[in-house]
Design goal:
The protein is mainly β and 898 residues long. It contains five helices and 48 strands. β28 and β29 form a beta hairpin.
């Protein structure tokens, strides 16, 4: 039976995607280098309708060496000069074709192959490769097209990946399935990267390490990932930067800054990709509750150079330097919150300023040896250094007022009466310097349907941290220093001075110098099992089908183990991991044709340890714990995906359910974006949930993405019991509420399992794109050059509680997170632009495309909460005052590509 064009292309992409990845390195070293003995043949494989053929095998008959055609049906292969050579071109759906050539130099050829004829009675389908890793290829979306306040790729992960949550538009941080940001592995070109350690608020953090303009592809796994990836509890984000095939550049400027990215293939051996970014969020930060002089200046430079030493060896250099400066002189703040029953206003007047600086440098050298078609060896050396300072003295004098709630009153919404006044002073002189140096080797060996990966890594870490921070709050003037009561004394000044009591103080001078040794070994096998299928159904009103045939169910099993040793606590851990992928043989009749359903099922499990880095080994008082141990998470993940059709267009629907057993957990609190650890393995817990996502052409020709996640994560902290006290009237004594505060009885309370700080039960995200259709175009207005994109995020309430070390009090819930960002763009220069009316010397001829965008951030102007400020009134009652994120802002952006 003959398949349609669309079915062939789809099956080819799925069947051979993994093979293309495996042979990617081979393509890189098969570059157009002509020596005295060989030359390069550049070719393209198509069918009679000029459709590109993906995954075709091109084999040299004389040497049995070959390559596979890429996603454009193209290939490069080296053959001898002045010698007759026969190329064998084969494909699962096409007849084998021979092409004989006698080249004298580099040559380009086109090969047309013929589709195989298939008979319905008995059909034998050959083996297909479905890949095996649970890590998913995420579409690489150009963020310059999208309305994002942060302009980083992480902001799109909630829509593109499973189980990702983000609740702060000013930060690149994200949480996955109940973990915090520190539990995510992030790689760029195979190198693990870090974000600033001292950043406590999104506005301080600066630029994300990842430069979106330089990205080639994105891999992501929300759990159950392979042993080739490192030791973290939650997820993997693996970014690869583009290797230039030709010259290209893009330039972006907006009210928030600009960026420039340039790439080129200088020679057949040398190429580069560089990016320069500058960002200032002053305009965006003007939408915060706290008004003042914001002076953020964030900039970085990144560069990657690749040089092919010969056909087998490739040398890569990668470097980055970033300087993120943030300075603010706060002036005042006014926050209204509460309900119709209790409407409150918090007003603060500030003095002082805050200055933070995060300087980061990183360099890496890699050497890749493609020994042969089966064996690849990689060698890396990297250096990472960060120098961070945080200095501030901020005095705030505040008043807490209750507002008039009577709708009939002329003073509705105005101050009814004052509940208290006070002041606070926050002081810090903190610094951190860290250096990470490592060297590692990774190798891959493939043979037929087997693949073996191995690696070993040695790493040295040095961290020094000086902490000098204190916080003083004077609620209702109760903390003012004064002499003790001296009534009746003739010389009260001789009475000892009564000192101030600081609410919080941390003084520490820590340093760690340690080494880590880690390694992994993993094997993957792909196999298939024949299955006899009988189809008996109606094709249409005039015909029926009654046939049986044999097709294959495809399986991939991957098993591996990791080891890790840290000298600081002398702990050695082993982490076994396994996963299975299955592609069942299920058929359907669609539009009178017999088609195989595109369904993939998968399960994964394993032990995932996270040896602590410096901050996880430090407690809330700044003290280090040499006895700290690695946290442990046991993953159980099951899911799958399938291709379905809506409106006669393909959509991909995927889902995963999971359960994670958490042991030796280090409890923590989240203050804005900073994770403050308790520094002890004193908790156990679990995370469970369900993730569903869909992507496809909601609007014909344009991809959009949506995801829905449900999560429950809790922990039980050892020895966290407390007592409730009762007065003589058997009333529970609540400070600030109960009149009789004298306790005569008590009850011991064991909190048991409590929500973890990331326990956001439900989240939904949508990334939607649309474009005006071509048929609306007129001579005067090209409607098709107008586009719109929308990014929507929704998250339920997160747990929080009053300041202190008692996690069991963190059972309150914050407000919902709701945000919509929308962008409208108009193409100024595009593929249909008539450039002939411009001078031949005009820069317009060098511009591939250019557009202008109008963006609206926080379209609905919703006040989302990032954290809470706690104050007391004269009765001792505590109030949590929400700190809101940015309100609505407008932005203009110009983008040009060369």
């Amino acid at each position: 039976m003959k398949h349609g064009k669309e079915e062939i292309l789809r099956k080819n992409k799925m069947n051979y995607r993994f093979q293309i990845i495996l042979f990617g390195l081979f393509f890189l070293i098969n570059n157009p280098i002509c020596s005295q003995e060989t030359c390069v043949i550049k070719g393209k494989i198509t069918d009679f309708k000029n459709n590109k053929i993906i995954g075709a095998n091109i084999l040299i008959s004389e040497t049995k060496k070959g390559v596979i055609s890429n996603e454009n049906g193209e290939f490069l292969i080296n053959i001898p000069i002045d010698k007759k050579t026969t190329l064998l071109i084969s494909h699962i759906n096409y007849t084998e074709t021979k092409k004989t050539i006698f080249p004298k130099n580099d040559t380009s050829i086109n090969v047309i192959i013929k589709m195989k004829s298939k008979i319905l009675k008995t059909v034998e389908v050959e083996h297909k490769d479905i890949g095996g890793s649970p890590i998913e290829l995420i579409p690489s979306i150009d963020v310059t097209n999208i309305a994002l306040p942060s302009s980083n790729i992480e902001s799109l992960l909630p829509s593109l990946g499973f189980g990702v949550r983000q609740n702060n538009e000013l930060s690149s941080g994200f949480n996955v399935r109940g973990g915090n940001f520190d539990e995510n592995l992030i790689y760029v070109n195979g190198i693990e990267v870090y974000r600033p350690f001292l950043a406590r608020a999104g506005q301080q953090e600066g630029l994300s390490f990842i430069n979106p303009s330089m990205i080639d592809n994105i891999l992501f796994s929300a759990g159950g990932f392979d042993a080739v990836y490192g030791d973290k509890l939650s997820s993997v984000l693996d970014i690869t930067y583009k290797e230039a095939k030709e010259f290209g550049a893009n330039f972006t400027t907006s009210l928030l800054g600009g960026q420039l990215q340039v790439q080129d293939k200088v020679t057949s051996r040398l190429n580069y990709n560089i990016g320069l970014r500058y960002r200032t969020n002053s305009y965006l930060l003007g939408a915060l509750d706290t008004k003042g002089e914001y002076r953020p200046r964030f900039g970085d430079f990144q560069g990657m150079v690749n040089y092919y030493l010969n056909e087998k060896w490739k040398l890569s250099l990668f470097g980055t330097s970033a300087n993120n400066l943030f300075s603010v002189k706060p002036q005042n703040r006014e926050t209204n919150w509460g309900s119709i029953n209790e409407a409150l206003r918090f007003t603060v007047y500030y003095e002082g300023q805050e200055n933070t600086q995060f300087k980061t440098n990183m360099g890496a050298i890699s050497l890749i040896n493609s020994v042969n078609d089966n064996l690849t060896l990689k060698f890396f050396t990297t250096y990472f250094q960060t120098d961070e300072t945080e200095n501030f003295d901020v005095l705030g004098e505040y008043r807490l007022d209750e507002l008039e709630r009577d709708l009939s009153s002329d003073e509705y919404g105005e101050i009814a009466y004052n509940r208290g006044v006070g002041a606070f002073l926050h002081h810090a002189r903190n610094s951190l310097n860290a250096q990470v140096i490592n060297a590692y080797h990774n190798g891959t060996f493939t043979k037929e349907r087997n693949r073996t990966d191995w690696g070993i890594k040695a790493q040295h870490e040095e961290v020094s941290n000086i902490i000098n921070e204190w916080y003083f709050i004077d609620s209702a003037k109760f903390s003012i220093p004064h002499y003790q009561d001296s009534i009746g004394y003739t010389n009260p000044s001789n009475i000892p001075y009564q000192y101030l009591v600081l609410n919080k103080t941390i003084n520490a001078n820590n340093s760690i110098s340690s080494n880590r040794l880690s390694g992994h070994l993993q094997h993957r096998i792909r196999f298939y099992k024949p299955k006899t299928i009988r189809i008996k159904d109606s094709i249409n009103s005039n015909a029926t089908i009654d046939t049986s045939f044999t097709d294959d169910q495809f399986f991939t099993i991957t098993g591996g183990i990791r080891g890790n040793y840290w000298t600081y606590n002398n702990e050695f851990i082993l982490s076994p991991r396994v996963n299975l992928k299955w592609k069942p043989a299920i058929y359907k009749i669609e539009e009178g044709k017999l088609k195989r359903k595109d369904i993939t099922l998968k399960i994964a499990s394993g032990y995932y340890y996270q040896p602590p880095f410096y901050r996880a080994a430090r407690n809330l008082n700044g003290e280090l714990n040499p006895q700290i141990r690695a946290q442990k998470s046991i993953h159980f993940v099951a899911g799958g995906d399938m291709i379905v059709k809506f409106w006669n267009r393909p959509f991909k629907i995927g889902s995963e359910c999971y359960y994670k057993i958490l042991r030796d957990i280090i409890p923590y609190e989240i203050d804005n974006i900073r994770v403050n650890y308790y520094g002890e393995n004193k908790a156990k817990g679990y995370s469970t949930g369900l993730d569903i996502k869909i992507n496809g052409e909601f609007v014909k020709g344009i991809q959009s993405y949506a995801s829905l996640s449900w999560l429950k994560t809790q922990e039980d902290i050892n020895n966290d019991h407390y007592y409730q006290y009762f007065n003589a009237q058997d009333e529970l004594i609540i400070n600030g509420y109960t009149q009789d505060q004298i306790a005569v009885d008590s009850t011991k309370i064991e909190p048991g399992y409590i929500p973890r700080p990331t326990d956001q039960r439900l989240s939904f995200s949508l990334f939607f794109q649309d474009q005006m259709p071509d048929d609306l175009d007129t001579e005067k207005i090209k409607w098709s050059t107008m586009k719109v994109n929308l990014n929507l995020l929704f998250g339920t309430r997160l747990p929080y509680g009053p300041p202190g070390d008692d996690r069991y009090t963190d059972t309150l819930r914050s407000s919902l997170y709701r945000r919509i960002d929308i962008g409208f763009s108009k193409d100024l220069i595009h593929s249909k632009t008539d450039k002939s009316k411009f001078s031949s010397k005009s820069i317009v001829h060098k511009i591939e495309s250019m557009w202008i965008a109008f963006e609206v951030f926080n379209l609905l102007d919703i006040s989302n909460t990032t954290n809470y400020t706690w104050i007391r009134d004269i009765s001792g009652r505590q109030y949590s005052v929400p700190s809101f994120l940015t309100s609505r802002r407008l932005n203009l952006k110009l983008v040009a590509r060369f």
